[in-house]
């Protein structure tokens, strides 16, 4: 069988096996091993390439950023910063129609700047925001929809774990990706707030009664405001300010952020020995899971190189005389389609090694390409049947009246908003690259 045919068959089998529920790392490692064996006709070569992928893929200095930022996010969650941020945002937007929904977006935006995970944001704000939104008269579908929509900000606003993962797999500067994610992340947050404002005008019954909310909210003193917003502001200033100010690298920023988060949790007396042990164990679980994914990604990329599939794809594009715009549209359509059946990491692992050689040959800025890829992939978190954020919200809900279907329907306006922002970043690349050029 022709090597490129073997590579193509392996891609189809990957999607099918992942759909059957087999872990993405197992699928990548197994199929890459078998495909390499078939292409080279020697099992020893396949074994050696697997060993090389395991040896070299985790030696990169940039890999150290993963456990450090994971630990920082877990420590911040343990310190109760998310709760304080939501309370303060709710106070700031209390007199606006739909204000508590806007406050959820604002709080998620701030929380994303120190957490880096959409799933963690969805979990935290499902428990914090949904009960309060429902209590104040917000429609249940709207309540879960705004949490699902705003949770995706965690994968775009730095320090995003998905941006880190993309940077390692694509071998792109993580610092540049962090910088490039700032403006698109803020634009997306602003677009979500405008979406809520529009929904409040069209269907006021969806968004409660801001006058009543204001009366029920006692005035916060300057000391209370400082207590709630001060720690998280300082943490963001230390971590992101240090990176963008050139004081330290993203890896060093992860270490500084983890230490600062630990001191914050201790200062607030919100971290017990048992809680700290739980944070360490969870950090280990996440890091080991990402480690095997990175090994699998490197082995898969080696297999694709041996299969010459990216080369064949490039020749086909050249023969078909496709313009870059048409090619990009096809790529984004495929990513959006995959987002309905696969998780974010799986899409990046499968698609990126295949298309990156073609994009590089066309002179595409891989930092900008990473931002639009992340946004397109994150739309999948909100779309059925495998919208991961929706499932996380459902798992954390204590309200039997809200179904999984309600979450998907509530998140639909925010998914549409994301597509509009995606188109904006595609047509105006400077929004992503302006701060690094």
UniProtKB/TrEMBL annotation:
* Keywords per UniProt: Cell inner membrane, Cell membrane, Membrane, Transmembrane, Transmembrane helix, Transport
Query: How does this protein sit in the membrane?
Result: Multi-pass membrane protein
Principal localization? membrane
Return the Pfam families for the record: DctM
Any keyword Transferase?
no
Q: TRAP C4-dicarboxylate transport system permease DctM subunit domain: which residues?
A: 11-430
Chain ranges passing through the membrane: 6-39, 60-82, 102-130, 142-166, 178-200, 225-244, 279-302, 322-355, 367-387, 407-436
The function of this protein is:
Part of the tripartite ATP-independent periplasmic (TRAP) transport system.
Q: Which PANTHER family match?
A: C4-DICARBOXYLATE TRAP TRANSPORTER LARGE PERMEASE PROTEIN DCTM, SIALIC ACID TRAP TRANSPORTER PERMEASE PROTEIN SIAT-RELATED
Subunit info here reads: The complex comprises the extracytoplasmic solute receptor protein and the two transmembrane proteins.
Q: What is this protein called?
A: TRAP transporter large permease protein
Q: What is the lineage of its organism?
A: Bacteria, Pseudomonadati, Pseudomonadota, Alphaproteobacteria, Hyphomicrobiales
